[in-house]
Write a structure and sequence with these properties.
The structure is a single chain. It is built from 8 helices and 9 strands. The chain is an alpha/beta fold. Strands 1, 2, 3, 4, 5, 6, 7, 8 and 9 form a 9-stranded mixed β-sheet that branches. It is globular, with a radius of gyration of 18 Å.
């Protein structure tokens, strides 16, 4: 679905929601950083629209400037409360009144996210009707250290569901031909009816310790389906990372 297409209001459809806010400690105002000629939020929006299984893309924000920028490039934006503690809570508000069966949480600072990864996360949830949500993991790149606490590790059980996530290095047996430890990709799909339940769950000890919100679902007994993918993408947390993205974007625009 392109940015200017009319969304299908389908109770069995898939809605991708991109939570976006201006208050980033390391990179204030990053959703509207536009050295490529487009605000970063537009790059993310365009990638989400390219996912073949997504029917509608919505930006959820508490900032009027982000809201108006999305409308300016032909996207759909919903204003939400300024009181949300996290993106999941913001998404839960944004989908109120939106008919769908699956909600995708696409991070607003990942302009290089592969649409195939989004489709895989959707398929993973569809293929496990008993799961409340789904996510994906990928191999570590050669220049990535599995011991790095900034890189979240994922462990999958034989049933195809996540056993745990951790910032600490975790030894993993090879499952389904994957012989290496896997890095979690910060992309989630939720069964629509589960999302408000998840947003209302109380934080758990391991969640607080690891600072990983997905552990809340596991500790409260809600299964997470997990698939492996061969490709990876990185979010942008700092001006330096954004500068690298701009260089990559410009080189590809020139066909280098």
């Amino acid at each position: 679905m392109t940015a200017n297409e009319t969304p299908r209001h389908d109770e069995s459809g898939v809605v991708a929601v991109i939570p976006a806010r201006m208050a980033s400690t390391r990179f204030p105002g990053k959703p509207l950083a536009s050295e490529t000629g487009k605000p970063m939020i537009q790059h993310v929006h365009e990638q989400a629209c390219r996912a073949s299984l997504v029917d509608r893309v919505v930006v959820a924000t508490d900032d009027r400037a982000i809201h108006d920028a999305v409308l300016d490039f032909g996207g759909e934006a919903i204003m939400t409360s300024t009181e949300h503690p996290n993106g999941t809570s913001r998404i839960a508000e944004a989908i109120e009144g939106i008919p769908c069966s699956i909600v995708v949480n696409v991070q607003g600072d990942e302009p290089m996210i592969d649409p195939k990864t989004i489709d895989l996360a959707i398929e993973t949830l569809r293929n496990d009707p008993g799961a409340s949500m789904a996510t994906v993991a990928c191999p570590f790149a050669e220049n990535e250290d599995p011991k790095d606490p900034n890189l979240v590790k994922a462990v999958r059980g034989a049933d195809g569901r996540a056993l745990t996530f951790s910032r600490e290095a975790i030894p993993q047996a090879g499952l389904d031909g994957h012989s290496h430890a896997h890095r979690h990709v910060g992309l989630y799909t939720y069964a629509r009816d589960f999302l408000p339940i998840f947003a209302g769950l109380s934080p758990t000890p391991r969640e607080r310790l690891e600072r990983l919100e997905q552990l809340r679902a596991i500790e409260h007994g809600h299964p997470i389906a997990l698939s492996f993918c061969p490709w990876a993408h990185h979010g942008i947390d700092t001006p330096e990372q954004y500068a690298a993205f701009v260089r990559w974007h410009d080189s590809h625009a020139r066909g280098i």
